């Protein structure tokens, strides 16, 4: 956050909203996904969630000020909040009872690994390039 604070000329309290806002919206979207899954088929819901996450990442990468970056993080959080429970639903649908435990374990491993390694790599990228680069990397991953 210090790099963002300097470039966007914001204080520490304001910068924390980038994390808090994301987590708040993400947390609200997770239970709402059950309702959305009843109303929208899986594929369109997945594409909408990925689209939201992708658009949020693109806007964050080019955000000229804090307000735009905050909006981008909220858009990202909407997509991320839908994707988490949708992934679990998809695993339950695709895998038989015999293979479901393995699939859920593998997904859990990935989910646990990302927060453990992500901040280290992100910190290295930001220290050697720009705080915008991780958002660009996320765009590349989301497009795959």
TrEMBL record:
Which part of the chain is the Major facilitator superfamily (MFS) profile domain?
A: 1-144
Which organism's genome codes for this protein? Answer: Staphylococcus aureus
Report membrane topology: Multi-pass membrane protein
Q: Which GO terms describe its cellular component?
A: plasma membrane
Alphabetically ordered keywords of this record: Membrane, Transmembrane, Transmembrane helix, Transport
Main subcellular localization, coarse class? Answer: membrane
Query: What Gene Ontology terms describe what this protein does at the molecular function level?
Result: transmembrane transporter activity
User: Secretion signal: which residues?
Assistant: none
Q: Where in the cell is it found?
A: Cell membrane
* Classification via Gene3D superfamilies: Multidrug resistance protein D
What's this protein's name?
Answer: MFS transporter
Question: Which residue windows are transmembrane per the record?
Answer: 17-37, 44-63, 75-95, 102-126
């Amino acid at each position: 956050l210090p790099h963002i604070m300097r470039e966007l000329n914001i204080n520490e309290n304001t910068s924390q909203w980038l994390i808090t806002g994301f987590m708040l919206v993400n947390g609200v979207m997770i239970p709402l996904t059950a309702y959305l899954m009843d109303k929208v088929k899986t594929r369109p819901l997945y594409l909408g969630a990925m689209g939201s996450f992708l658009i949020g990442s693109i806007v964050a990468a080019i955000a000229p000020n804090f307000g735009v970056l905050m909006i981008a993080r909220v858009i990202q959080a909407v997509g991320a909040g839908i994707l988490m429970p949708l992934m679990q639903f998809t695993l339950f649908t695709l895998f038989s009872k015999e293979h479901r435990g393995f699939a859920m374990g593998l997904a859990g491993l990935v989910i646990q690994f990302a927060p453990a390694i992500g901040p280290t790599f992100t910190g290295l990228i930001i220290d050697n390039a720009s705080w915008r680069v991780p958002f660009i990397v996320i765009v590349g991953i989301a497009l795959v």
